[in-house]
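To fix ideas, we close by showing one paired sequence and structure record:
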Amino acid sequence: MKRICFGLLALFFSITSYGQKEIKVEEAKEFVGDTVKICTKIFDTNYDEASKGSPTYLYTTAHNPNATLTFIIWGEKRKFFDYKPEKDLKEREVCVTGKIELMKDKAVMIIEKQSQVDIK
């Protein structure tokens, strides 16, 4: 009986974790440390292949450094995408689910895999 209850409890938490809270881009700094869903237009992009970690930056609301939130895809994670994020997401509406972090006092969300990004 304990196993069944534990199994049902684990199933409940795994299902509810997919229903992340959706927030606005402007609220990102208020949710540092939380996993949320943000729907927004990608204003600009930059694949900085020559920099350490070869990051791809997806800027919301403005060019860097004025972007309210920046999505980052590190170089080693690009292999998990079947498209080029810096080209195929620019000026597109997307919903991204992930954890909000601070980097140099700016709100960022690290994208680890393509399934975190829903292109509208």
About this structure: Confidence is low (pLDDT under 50) at residues 5-17. The chain has one domain: 21-119.
